[in-house]
Inverse folding.
């Protein structure tokens, strides 16, 4: 946990706190989206897809609001060092959060458009991937809130677990197509392949956030190459 | 590229009477670079640059230990003549301080004092080239024999820089040269500093961190008489290593 002294001008701290609050609110909404996505994959609920679609513009609005807050902060405060990194990290994190929200919407629509109900095993694996993403998201937001660089490193390293699950599920879907090559099955499974790729990419955006959090705290790029899952 | 060392303070301690103003300062200043000294009021920045041209000699109660080397020579050695040392080191102060004389005589003052010319034409040439180097010539060429105190603040400060340049120094010390100037005059001085560093070694004391960031290659942060951190300006302002530096540059309660 990294703590700094307060600014002499207390409204400087208020500005930073306000940007951080926006990031946290936005992240909370993304968490909510993934919770809804889990429900959609589990039950196929059409009304939940509606909820996801309704939330999506709110994320875009947060992204715009955070950009404006950061521009104002930089213009009026001329922040340096840790403060400047804090502002720039917020900009990049909000972009990643916005993208995470996009992915959620895409997957929801794709699941809704499936031709067939996916095999239970594959469905459970997709649910597992979503739970992993949820866990990573929660952890990275914790790292951001507590300014904890070690937690940020943990999140980055844990992305390999999602990558590995992606690979396993990918193989299962391909196997499913081979076993039962009907037209509908192939269409369904192709959509599932896109689905798991998108969820895997969501993990990458969480990794980006972890790296941003680390950079904001330490001022250096996390240098060691991050652990990757097995290649496709 | 290795930089040529111009000024080097080694284990420098300075006392005014019983009060110690500088504590064991070790600092290297490189040729043809701008080095900023930053830190809160009373931290010893001005005391330190006044050591470089032995201005502190003029303060009776000032004592020091340690060394200051310029071009590898100990400037406090008994063989060093402080007057000839000061011709190698120009100084510009916070408040422009032209002499109550004409522009011409302001600039000619040092060369006359040191007998640096043979003919009137030589002196004219020194005055004109100094004004040009200070970026002031075009603005004042028609009133060289009017009083220097009639210029604007920014012009007066550039006149003082021209006056410092007239004795052909190697080092220019600037003690908050822009603190009394508006942003446009400040920008002109900063542009001038950028040009001057090609020929001179510049040390600038400034309370404006933005200015230190804009003009200097290296920055040294001082706090209560100690040199806390020194490094490339881009590193000091983007990612300082010392918590005290971080607190100062980001405006935190230290």
């Amino acid at each position: 946990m990294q703590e700094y002294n307060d600014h002499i001008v207390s409204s400087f701290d208020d500005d930073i706190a306000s940007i951080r609050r926006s990031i946290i609110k936005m992240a909370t909404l993304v968490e909510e989206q993934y919770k809804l996505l889990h429900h959609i994959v589990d039950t196929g609920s059409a009304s939940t897809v509606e909820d996801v679609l309704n939330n999506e513009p709110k994320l875009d609005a947060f992204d715009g609001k955070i950009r404006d807050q950061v521009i104002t902060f930089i213009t009026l405060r001329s922040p340096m060092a840790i403060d400047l990194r804090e502002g720039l990290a917020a900009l990049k994190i909000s972009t990643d959060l916005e993208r995470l929200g996009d992915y959620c919407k895409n997957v929801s629509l794709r699941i809704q458009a499936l031709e067939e109900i996916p095999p239970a095993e594959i469905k459970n694996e997709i649910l597992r991937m979503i739970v992993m993403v949820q866990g990573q998201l929660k952890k990275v937001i914790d790292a951001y809130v507590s300014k904890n660089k070690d937690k940020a490193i943990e999140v980055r390293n844990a992305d390999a677990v999602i990558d590995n699950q992606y690979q396993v599920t990918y193989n299962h879907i391909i196997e499913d197509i081979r076993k039962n090559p009907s037209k509908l099955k192939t269409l369904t499974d192709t959509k599932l392949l896109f689905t798991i790729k998108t969820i895997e990419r969501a993990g990458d955006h969480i990794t980006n956030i972890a790296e941003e959090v680390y950079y904001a705290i330490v001022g250096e790029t996390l240098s060691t190459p991050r652990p990757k899952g097995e290649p496709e | 590229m290795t930089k040529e060392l111009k000024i080097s303070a080694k284990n420098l301690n300075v006392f005014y009477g019983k009060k110690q103003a500088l504590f064991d300062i070790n600092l290297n200043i490189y040729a043809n670079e701008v080095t900023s000294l930053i830190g809160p009021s009373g931290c010893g920045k001005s005391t330190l640059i006044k050591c470089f041209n032995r201005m502190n000699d003029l303060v009776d109660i000032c004592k020091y230990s340690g060394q200051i080397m310029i071009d590898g020579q100990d400037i406090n050695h008994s063989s060093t003549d402080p007057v000839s040392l000061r011709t190698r080191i120009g100084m510009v102060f916070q408040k422009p301080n032209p002499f109550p004389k004409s522009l011409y005589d302001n600039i000619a003052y040092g060369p006359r004092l040191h007998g640096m010319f043979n003919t009137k034409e030589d002196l004219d040439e020194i005055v004109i080239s100094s004004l040009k180097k200070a970026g002031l010539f075009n603005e004042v060429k028609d009133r060289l024999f009017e009083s220097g105190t009639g210029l604007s603040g920014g012009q007066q400060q550039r006149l003082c820089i021209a006056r410092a340049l007239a004795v052909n120094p190697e080092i220019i010390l600037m003690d908050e040269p822009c603190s009394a100037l508006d942003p446009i005059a400040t920008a002109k001085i900063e542009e001038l500093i950028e040009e001057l560093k090609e020929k001179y070694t510049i040390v600038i004391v400034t309370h404006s961190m933005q200015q230190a960031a804009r003009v200097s290659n290296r920055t040294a942060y001082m706090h209560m008489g100690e040199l806390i951190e020194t490094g490339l300006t881009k590193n000091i302002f983007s990612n300082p290593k010392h918590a005290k530096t971080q607190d100062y540059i980001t405006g935190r309660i230290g």
